[in-house]
Amino acid sequence: RVEYLTSLLTLQPSQVTLIRAVLTEEQTSSSAVQTSLGTARTALRDAVDALSPDATLDRLAATTGQLGGQLDAIHAKAQVKLLNVLTAEQRTKLNTLDGGGFGRGLGGPGRRGGPFPQ
């Protein structure tokens, strides 16, 4: 992914270094949340199978929603950091791609909860 963007946007070596650091930070930040989200989803499925009361289902569903929101926030913050590494010309070129940029068409919302490819 970084190699593709390097050739597409003619990234400078310093930009590549910064982009790799941001992607690594995002992956590190999201790893524990992803694990917790998987556990929470399993708990919710188990609660459904156990015919649990509504209050239990509400609590477990709220937990999965909160964790999903945390992943969205981590990803959005990484996108901003990545876009700030680029020049205005590079951002314009990136936005002309199908999907429009980091994480939107190159591994975007459909990858929710998965690691950011490097």
Outline the structure in words.
With 118 residues, the protein is mainly α. The protein has one domain (2-111). It is built from 4 helices and no strands. The protein has helices at residues 2-9, 13-49, 54-85, 88-95. The longest helix is centred in the N-terminal third of the chain and has 37 residues, at 13-49. The protein is elongated and about 55 Å long.
Residue fraction in strands: under 5%
Order of helix and strand elements from N to C terminus: HHHH
Shape: elongated
DSSP E strands, number: 0
Mean pLDDT: 88
Spans of 5+ residues with little confidence (pLDDT < 50)? 104-118
Largest sheet: none
* Separate helix tally: 4
Question: Percent of residues in helical segments?
Answer: over 70%
Radius of gyration: 18 Å
Provide the domain count.
Answer: 1
By helix and strand content, what is the structural category? mainly alpha
Summarize the structure.
The protein is mainly α and 118 residues long.
Task: Outline the secondary-structure elements.
Blueprint: H1 2-9, H2 13-49, H3 54-85, H4 88-95
Helix pairs in contact: 2-3
Sum up the structure in keywords:
4 helices; 72% helix
